[in-house]
Design brief:
Four Helix Bundle (Hemerythrin (Met), subunit A); single chain; 0% strand; mainly alpha
Length: 126
């Protein structure tokens, strides 16, 4: 990695990250609320024939999957915002070293540096 990607996150960068994360948080919250309403509406709709029910079940499965993924992403974003507030943003939770700026720009909710994340994915770090 280049030296510039390992520099600490400045306060101006933190404000930008926080602003972007808050925007994503708001968007996900709206998406989750909308999906929840759609799921309820689909559940409350009148039953049709077997084909209608089958299509409805497939639609519900997709909605539940999207809802679950959105909730997981929202949790990651909320954790990143908490790390910004606590001063831990940009610090690897495993090794305590800096998380590269390029990684944070790509995944602002990342809580591990790329090296530790790779080790976690390979099962070497708990």
């Amino acid at each position: 990695m280049s030296v510039s990607s390992e520099l600490p996150v400045t306060s101006k960068m933190l404000l930008l990250f926080k602003s972007d994360l808050c925007e994503q948080q708001n968007e996900l919250t709206r998406t989750i609320d909308r999906t929840h309403k759609d799921i309820r509406a689909l559940a409350d709709s009148e039953r049709g024939d077997v084909i209608d029910e089958s299509c409805g079940n497939a639609t519900k499965e997709v909605m539940f999957t999207n809802y679950t993924e959105s909730r997981k992403q929202l949790h990651k974003i909320e954790a990143a915002l908490e790390r910004i507030d606590s001063g831990e943003f940009g610090i690897c939770a495993v090794c305590g070293g800096p998380i590269g700026l390029k990684r944070l720009q790509a995944l602002p909710w990342a809580n591990n540096c790329i090296e530790c994340q790779e080790q976690c994915e390979q099962g070497r770090v708990q």
